[in-house]
Amino acid sequence: MNELDTHARDAAVRALADARRILALTGAGISAESGIPTFREAQTGLWARFSPEDLATPEAFACDPERVWGWYRWRRTLIARGGVNAGHEALAALERHRDVRIATQNVDGLHAAAGSSDIAELHGNIWRERCSACAANTTTAVAPADEDAPLPACSRCGAPTRPDIVWFGEMLPADALARAEQGLNEADCVLVVGTSNRVYPAAALVETAIAGPATVIEVNPEATPVSTAVDVALRASASHALPALVAALDAAPARR
Ligand code: APR
After folding, report:
1. 196 contact partners, CB below 8 Å, separation of at least 6
2. Main subcellular localization, coarse class (predicted)?
3. Which domain holds residue 58?
4. What is the pLDDT of residue 2?
5. Which pLDDT score, from 0 to 100, does residue 3 have?
6. Residues 248 and 218 reside in one and the same domain
7. Is the domain of 252 the same as that of 230?
8. 106 assigned binding-site residue
9. Most CB within 10 Å of its CB: which of 10, 78, 155, 178?
10. What is the pLDDT of residues 212-221, one digit of tens each?
11. 72 known ligand binder
């Protein structure tokens, strides 16, 4: 892992340099090097250790909000401690060269923290809460969570609030999905970073990209179901491959 194939790297740099608009589709892998577990990694993945039915469904929240909040507060603490990594920073830096929209499945808020300016959060955001009754929204500070704090209640109606996250069986936020699809239609180059491409409808965006005219570059240390169909596969970690691509663009003569 992490030895970038020079041929693949050069092809990726050419595609990025030739692009006017870039869409980056990101998943849990881009935050892995911040010490934030991914979902499906054997043993270490969250779903190898916890059951999604007990933690990431509206039914689980209705049945045991304490347990669900305990788990999200634990994840908030991991995210606050881990912070952004070189992969997040490189995607933000890519905006120096091209228009970049990020459509992310991640709820950690780290793309915004790294300075990216155009982000569609397909699965919500762990730092936002919404009322489970009246849907009033609030946002909390990025900080390790006090796990003994009382469960948050809605300031408007007093009902329990829940993390503003898309749980299994729930619809994606229409505006975020629309912006991801618009980004896909306008992109000349699509970066697919750190996702196993197993969860829909986000995985369908990748399939649409592959079927379309844009050049698709996958960044993932492991193969995924789309690895044989993308134009360029960089078998490396995000925080290794993405800075290398941006450094090559920095070194190349400007072509805007
Ligand atoms: N750099 C790049 N990719 C990495 C790295 C890394 N350092 N480490 C792991 N990966 C890759 C893994 O090889 C895997 O393909 O990231 C991918 C993570 O896959 P998942 O754990 O399935 O995460 P993701 O695709 O984001 O899951 C989608 O599923 O459970 C739901 O809502 C949750 O948003 C999540 C969705």
Report:
1. 27, 29, 38, 39, 40, 224, 225
2. cytoplasm
3. 37-82+126-165
4. 56
5. 66
6. yes
7. yes
8. yes
9. 78
10. 999 999 999 9
11. yes
- How many angstroms separate the CA atoms of 219 and 152, rounded? 38
| CATH number where 181 lies | 3.40.50.1220
- 73-94, pLDDT tens digit by residue? 999 999 999 999 999 999 999 9
Q: d(Cα 18, Cα 27) in Å, to the nearest integer?
A: 25
Which is nearest to 57 in space by CA: 167, 165, 166? 167
Pairing of strands 124-131, 119-121: unpaired
pLDDT at 207: 98
Question: How confident is the model at residue 255, as a pLDDT?
Answer: 57
114 assigned ligand-binding residue = no
Distance 106 CA to ligand 1 centre (A): 9
23 with 136, same domain?
no
Please tell me the residue having the least CA distance from ligand 1 atom 10. 29
Does any ligand 1 atom lie closer than 6 A to the CB of residue 33? yes
For the Cβ of 45 lying below 6 angstroms from any atom of ligand 1, the answer is yes
Structural domains counted in the chain: 2
238 lines ligand 1 (CB under 6 A): yes
**Residue 150 belongs to a domain with what CATH number?**
3.30.1600.10
